[in-house]
Specification:
The chain contains five helices and eight strands, in the order αβααβββαβαβββ. It is of the alpha+beta class. It has a domain of about 110 residues: Gcn5-related N-acetyltransferase (GNAT) (Aminopeptidase, 3-Layer(aba) Sandwich), CATH 3.40.630.30. Strands 1, 2, 3, 4, 5, 6, 7 and 8 form an eight-stranded mixed beta sheet that branches. The chain is globular and about 40 Å long. The structure holds coenzyme A. The site of coenzyme A has 18 residues, from strand 4, helix 4, strand 5 and helix 5.
C-alpha cells in the first residue's frame, strides 16, 4: 500500500503552510465550540459552490470525528475531519476558493495524518472527489476502486498506509 507522504518529495522539502500561505495557521477544532467556523467553510465550499444538500453535508459522524481548522487571522479558510472509529476515514477536506493552491489543504491533511498516527491507525482512506484525486495522490494516496456517484459528484476510494 502507498504510504502517506508528499509525492516525489520528503517532508523536509515541502514548504510549511506559514511559508506558502502566509498568515494561515492550522489547529485542531472542537465540533461544538468551533462549529460556526467549520460550518462557514463547509457551507461555502460544499453547499454553495458544489450544491451538496445541507442534510448530507452535516451528518451524525461529525460529533464523533476529529476536526481541523485553518485560520487566516480570525477568518476560517480551510477544514477537514478524521473519523478514527470508522477505520481512519478522511473527509470534508475543503479550502475557500480564494486560498487554494497555497498549501492550506496540504497543511490540513498533514495535521489529520499526525492525529491518525497518534491513534496508531495503520492506514487512512477517503472517498475523494475525482477532481481532487491529484491533491490526494500528491499526499501518497492511491485509488483503489471504480468511480462512483456520491451527492451527485464523481468520487473514487483512495487510501494510503501510515508510517
Ligand atoms: C482539494 C482542495 C482541498 C485542495 O486544497 P488546496 O489548499 O488548494 O491544496 P494545496 O495548495 O495544498 O495543493 C497541494 C497540491 O495538490 C495538487 N492539487 C491541489 N488542487 C488541485 C487541483 N484542483 N487539480 C490538480 N492538482 C491539485 C497540486 O499538486 C498542489 O500543489 P501545487 O499547487 O504546488 O501544484 C481544494 O481544492 C478544495 O477545497 N476543493 C473543493 C472541495 C473538494 O473538492 N474537497 C475534496 C473533497 S474529497
Amino acid at each position: 500500500m502507498a504510504a502517506c507522504s508528499p509525492k516525489g518529495t520528503d517532508r523536509a522539502t515541502v514548504a510549511p503552510v506559514a511559508e506558502r500561505a502566509a498568515g494561515v495557521i492550522v489547529r485542531d477544532a472542537d465540533f461544538t465550540a468551533d462549529f460556526a467556523n467549520l460550518r462557514f467553510v463547509r457551507a461555502t465550499v460544499f453547499i454553495a459552490e458544489q450544491n451538496v444538500p445541507v442534510d448530507l453535508e452535516f451528518d451524525d459522524r461529525d460529533p464523533l470525528c476529529r476536526h481541523v481548522l485553518a485560520l487566516e487571522g480570525t477568518a476560517p479558510v480551510g477544514t477537514g475531519r478524521l473519523d478514527v472509529e470508522y477505520g481512519g476515514k478522511v473527509g470534508r477536506v475543503a479550502v475557500i476558493a480564494s486560498r487554494r493552491r497555497g498549501g492550506v489543504g496540504t497543511a490540513v491533511m498533514e495535521r489529520l495524518h499526525e492525529i491518525a498516527r497518534a491513534h496508531r491507525l495503520p492506514m487512512l482512506w477517503c472517498h475523494a472527489q475525482l477532481t481532487a484525486a491529484p491533491f490526494y495522490e500528491r499526499l501518497g494516496y492511491r485509488a483503489t476502486g471504480a468511480v462512483f456517484d456520491e451527492a451527485g459528484i464523481d468520487h473514487v476510494r483512495m487510501e494510503c498506509g501510515l508510517r
